[in-house]
């Protein structure tokens, strides 16, 4: 009897496993040709000064638009891309496209190159032997100043990687590109490790921001992160700001920058450029109505 149940369970498991393996293989095959078929696109979310509301940067976020399946979010294909190594060509495309966008941003705002674009990069990508060389070549090809590009890496990228990764980070920074530590607080590094890494900007993970209103401990953690970061001359961005209350509290805690749905969702470049322009007019005290 037990054997029978066991067998039956195994059969069900087999079917489910078969389907998921098949689905994965199909997805991998489609993802393999996504770049060639021009199915990837970037959206951009504004990063703003929480004290003045000036837009100081844009974070690029990749989306996969297949003709048959519709829109796939990064969480549903970036992990597979990382496992299969497809993140290398995909990441190369993202970098290329983001640099092209910087050119467009500058053309839309002649004379000001004060807004930078942040690109998320994976461990696999950054560990490629020619990563730094490619990065420099891409910047040069698009005539982009290094100061206008930032790379976002996660804590786990640093913590789980061999020693060599820190040297790699130094090489990137020597190019003049700034490094952001993404999703801070979710990985295994501790605040006391922070000074060992060449990080310019620290992004407090969304989970802390979303919990700060209901749990005082989270607010204390955010406060501690901001204080320590400032002592290390590191700028702080709060991710995932959704309410006016969160924003005003972060302002009181002297957080530097923020991003989140309250200010703007990620949008295609043209739409985000319109927001940048509208915002600049408002802050300059010009009337936006009727333009
Ligand atoms: P991330 O870098 O931490 O990006 C922030 C994510 O939070 C984005 O999700 C963004 O849309 C979302 N978000 C921003 N503000 C809010 C908010 O107020 N509330 C909520 N609930 N969410 C908010 P998205 O675009 O789905 O990206 C997810 C993750 O995928 C990114 O997390 C990043 O780790 C990865 N990713 C995105 N684009 C790339 C890429 O080009 N390369 C690599 N390697 N990873 C990428
Ligand atoms: Mg990011
Ligand atoms: Mg993040
Ligand atoms: Mg996050």
Automatic annotation (TrEMBL):
Signal sequence, renumbered to the chain: none
EAL domain location is 24-280
Q: What is this protein called?
A: Phytochrome-like protein cph2
> What is the native source organism of this protein?
Roseimaritima ulvae
What is the covered span of the full protein? Answer: 373 to 663 of 663
């Amino acid at each position: 009897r037990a054997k029978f149940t066991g067998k039956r369970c195994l059969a069900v498991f087999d079917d489910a496993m078969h389907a998921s393996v098949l689905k994965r293989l199909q997805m991998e095959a489609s993802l393999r040709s996504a770049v060639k078929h021009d199915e990837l696109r970037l959206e951009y979310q504004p990063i703003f000064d929480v004290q003045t509301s000036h837009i100081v940067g844009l974070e690029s976020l990749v989306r996969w638009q297949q003709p048959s399946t519709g829109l796939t979010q990064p969480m549903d294909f970036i992990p597979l891309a990382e496992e299969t190594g497809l993140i290398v060509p995909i990441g190369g495309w993202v970098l290329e496209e983001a640099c092209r966008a910087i050119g467009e941003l500058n053309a839309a705002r002649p004379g000001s190159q004060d807004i930078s674009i942040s690109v998320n990069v994976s461990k696999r990508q950054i560990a490629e032997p020619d990563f730094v060389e490619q990065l420099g070549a891409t910047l040069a090809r698009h005539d982009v100043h290094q100061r206008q590009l930032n790379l976002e890496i996660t804590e786990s990228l640093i913590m789980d990687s061999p020693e060599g990764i820190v040297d790699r980070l130094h090489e990137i920074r020597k190019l003049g590109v700034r490094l952001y530590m993404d999703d801070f607080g979710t990985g295994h590094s501790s605040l006391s490790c922070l000074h060992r890494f060449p990080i310019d900007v620290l992004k407090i993970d969304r989970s802390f921001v979303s919990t700060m209103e209901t749990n005082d401990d989270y607010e204390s953690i955010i406060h501690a992160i901001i204080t320590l970061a400032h002592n290390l001359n590191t700028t702080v961005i709060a991710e995932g700001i959704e309410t006016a209350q969160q924003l005003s509290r972060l302002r009181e805690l002297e957080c530097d920058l923020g991003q989140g749905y309250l200010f703007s969702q990620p949008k295609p470049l043209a739409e985000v450029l319109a927001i940048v322009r509208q915002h600049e007019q408002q802050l300059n005290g010009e009337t936006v109505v009727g333009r």
